[in-house]
Amino acid sequence: MKLGRPYSPPKRWVLNLVVMVFLTLNCGAQEASLFYRIDTEEIKNHRIKVTATLSPEAFPTAKREVGLPVWTPGSYKIRDYSRFLSTVECLTPGTEVVKTAKNRWEIQGLKKNQPVKLQYSVYGHELTVRTNYFTPELSLFTGAGIFVAPTPVNSENLADATCRVEFGPHEGDIETNLTSVGPGVYTATNYDELLDRPIVMGDLEVLEFQAGQTPHKLVQAGHRQYWGKQKSLADAKAPVQTVQDFWGVIPYKKYAFYNLITDTRGGLEHRDSTVVMTGRFATREREKYVAWLSLLSHEYFHTWNVKRLRPVALGPFDYEEEVYTRSLWIAEGITSYYDDLLVRRAGLSTRKEYLKALSDQLNKFYQTPGRLHISLTDASFDAWIRLYQDTDDLHNSNISYYNKGAVVAWLLDTRIRKLTQGRKTLDDVMRTAYEEFSQKGFTEAQFRKLVNKVSGHDLSSFFQRNLDSLNDLDIQEALNYWHLTWEVSSKDSKPYLGLSTGSGPRAVVEKVYQGSPAAEAGLSPGDEIIAVDEVRVPETKPLSILDNLQVREEPYTFTIARLGRIQHKQVVLSQPKYRQHELKFQETDSAKEARWQEWLGPERSDKD
């Protein structure tokens, strides 16, 4: 047998290094106040198993009660995520788990210094940016619907609760802005940070770019075989740079766009990332692609406006109750004004395309009867019970603070520019607000006072009319200032019925518009239109008859089915109270061009 070299013991510094590494990797879970292990063996059935170990020091009292958030910041609706938790059990022998509220559980029988060790299952099969979705191909982990915590579940109670998340064996890649401390192991400084950094897992493609000397990721997930990878990467950088230039400060060290390519659309902002969803063919269709760029612009703008510059109610958070504010028109409406505008300024859309987007906002506003029944600030306050909870009559009683807020932001920008001869703009208001309020939040009164300060004028009457009253919006001042016309679209020539139907094979009424011929005739959501003047509505193209009706003096007889019975309704069509309009530029000259450039930036001649 051939002998090797004599054994030589390792030097002491090597042993110390090994011990340090071992302690770092193995003691991190014990040092974290809140430790979660996620196992994905059942992910093919849309379930994950969570094992939560919560230190006794994380509980404010001797009572060992845990809870789960009922909503997630940025989406103002009680979602009751606890609906999707099952088999909640404590792993410590001799203990019992007692449910104390819809989203709370008390663990009884633990000794004073024993940690809480819970295990439970989470079901996730709702593909939105604010919910959990678990499949082997693509998974979105939304923290508010996964991680239980000591009660009360709010920012103040959990401000010092360090968090650690560890994934068991899994398929696919993981992307998150949580701090990585090892393969599949992540940490957060507190519970707010844990919930603010979503996790995406699956077949992912990570594209990287620099903007403002800061690293950014465009993480592509989903059905990306039809997605223009290089096109989207090149174009994503431009609005990022434009938004950075707008604010003049970059408040994060890195940023991630999680682009989930699906058959749905949506976005949700976070402090240093965003989750967006878009259709798989969007890069091949110009209008949809520009809409995707505007979505990126919108969610990225929130990095400043909402996640840092925020109404006082929107942080610190109470994750178990609604938080009310009348200022969502600032958070979402002003952001909705700038999303399309900054894509235009970045040179990724034409002026004509921007006017089309602004025209769409105006048309949507003027075609919503609810605009005359609720103020913009009240619509903000009622977000929890209205905007995210659509009904067949919501359009008659509510207005979107995204939509009206964007229009009011345009009018406010115009008023400030006009009063200051172009020396100040809404851009200046937002930057000044960020400087003054980003660390502490603002009230509605403080924001209005700041607008007055920046503009040098008292705009109380503007705010009262456009924010607090039921008055309709008057856009004439903006049309005059920007040298625009607001013309009836030549494409809109149909008579007015005032209802909408579903997309199925039958003509089932979904919505009836207040004051319309359909409403006057007594048609109702849920009615199935079977025939018009005894002519059967075809099943293959149920709208073919309705789309070809003409205005006449005598009424049409609509045969409908309601609650299983046949009824006849007399409907008198009319000309629309409101027709589709479109914004157009007046004939140009040097003065008009200069003003348009101040607002929209220079035109791209290669995209005209």
**DSSP strand (E) fraction?**
15-25%
The strand line-up of the biggest sheet is: 4-7-2-1-11-14-13
Helix coverage percent of residues? 25-40%
Structural class based on helices, strands and sheet pairing: alpha+beta
The CATH class assignment of the domain at 28-202 is Mainly Beta
Low-confidence stretches: 1-29
Please name the CATH architecture of the domain at 28-202. Answer: Sandwich
| Largest sheet features | 7 strands, mixed
Radius of gyration: 28 Å
Number of strands: 28
Briefly note the CATH topology name of the domain at 28-202: Immunoglobulin-like
How far from one another are the termini? 84 Å
pLDDT averaged residue by residue: 93
The gross shape turns out to be: globular
Number of helices: 16
Descriptive overview:
- The longest helix is centred in the first third of the chain and has 20 residues, at 12-31.
- The termini are far apart.
- With 608 residues, the chain is an alpha+beta fold.
- It has a seven-stranded mixed beta sheet. The chain has a five-stranded mixed beta sheet with strand order 16-17-18-20-19, covered by helices on one side. A four-stranded antiparallel beta sheet has the order 5-6-3-10, with no helix packed on it.
- The protein has 16 helices and 28 strands.
- Among the domains are: 28-202, Immunoglobulin-like, CATH 2.60.40.3650; 499-571, PDZ domain (Pdz3 Domain), CATH 2.30.42.
- The protein is 30% helix and 24% strand.
- The radius of gyration is 28 Å and the shape is globular.
